């Protein structure tokens, strides 16, 4: 008898190729890989701009696909930078497409803001995800400030304190499923 692995959908709030946020998601994915099936969502920039007139029973195909990926996942991890003291527009846009649904309702979710400062963006991420009824707590959310000095160009976590914080985050996230 084969046991099905728990499906996790990591989402990077950055559309920049090889961003620090993507590297952090890769690090966490590798850490969790033995227990989870993980596929990072990399199509944030392909989602159309949110338009309430299109948020009907038949939304754009890209939105249906995105919502289904969230719905089909057992858990979601979002790792985002902060842009101009807020969330990146592409991530906020994606989350706005979820407001009229229940795809995040009671969904185990991990939230990471990794940026230069990140405080205000993190606060907004927590508020939005609380509004979407995502399931997270203090142990499954993390603010990483000064991220560029903590992740190498090759994707290695070069700050021992940050590596430890990410491992604790990953363990706490994993424990939500036990």
Could you explain the architecture of this structure?
- The protein is of the alpha/beta class and 178 residues long.
- It has a single domain (6-175), classed as 3-Layer(aba) Sandwich (Rossmann fold).
- It is built from 5 helices and 5 strands, in the order βαβαβαβαβα.
- It has helices at 20-32, 61-72, 89-96, 119-131, 160-175, and strands at 6-12, 36-38, 75-80, 108-115, 141-145.
- It has a 5-stranded parallel beta sheet with strand order 2-1-3-4-5, with helices on both faces.
- β3, α3 (89-96) and β4 form a beta-alpha-beta unit.
- The longest helix has 16 residues, at 160-175.
- The radius of gyration is 16 Å and the shape is globular.
- The two termini are 20 Å apart.
Write a compact overview of the structure shown.
The protein has 178 residues and is α/β, with parallel strands linked by helices.
From the structure above, extract its key features.
5 strands; 5 helices; globular; single chain; Rossmann fold
Report the CATH architecture: 3-Layer(aba) Sandwich
Which percent band covers the strand fraction? 15-25%
**Regions with little confidence, pLDDT below 50 for 5+ residues:** none
Taking the alpha carbons of the first and last residues, their distance comes to 20 Å
DSSP E strands, number: 5
Text of the CATH class: Alpha Beta
Rg on CA atoms, Å = 16 Å
Helix content: 25-40%
The largest beta-sheet arranges its strands as 2-1-3-4-5
Counted by DSSP, the helix tally is 5
The H-level CATH homologous superfamily, spelled out, is Flavodoxin domain
> In sequence order, what are the helices and strands, one letter per element?
EHEHEHEHEH
Main sheet attributes: strand count, strand direction, barrel closure: 5 strands, parallel
- What form results from the Cα inertia axes? globular
The CATH topology turns out to be Rossmann fold
The count of domains is 1
Structural class: alpha/beta
Kindly report the average pLDDT value. 96
Organism: Flavobacterium chungangensis
InterPro entries: Flavoprotein-like_sf, FMN_Rdtase-like_dom, NAD(P)H-dep_reductase
EC number: 1.-.-.-
Keywords: Oxidoreductase
């Amino acid at each position: 008898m084969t046991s099905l692995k728990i499906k996790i959908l990591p989402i990077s709030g950055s559309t920049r190729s090889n961003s620090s946020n993507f590297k952090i998601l890769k690090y966490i994915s590798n850490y969790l890989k033995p227990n989870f099936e993980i596929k990072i969502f990399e199509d944030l920039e392909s989602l159309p701009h949110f338009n309430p007139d299109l948020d009907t029973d038949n939304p754009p195909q890209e939105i249906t696909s995105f919502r289904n990926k969230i719905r089909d996942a057992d858990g979601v991890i979002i790792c985002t930078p902060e842009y101009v003291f807020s969330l990146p527009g592409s991530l906020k846009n994606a989350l706005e497409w979820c407001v009229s649904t229940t795809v995040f309702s009671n969904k185990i979710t991990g939230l990471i803001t990794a940026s230069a400062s990140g405080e205000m963006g993190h606060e907004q991420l927590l508020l939005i995800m609380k509004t979407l009824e995502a399931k997270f707590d203090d142990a499954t959310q993390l603010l990483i400030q000064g991220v560029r000095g903590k992740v190498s160009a090759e994707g290695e976590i070069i700050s021992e304190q940050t590596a430890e914080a990410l491992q604790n985050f990953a363990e706490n996230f994993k424990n939500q499923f036990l």
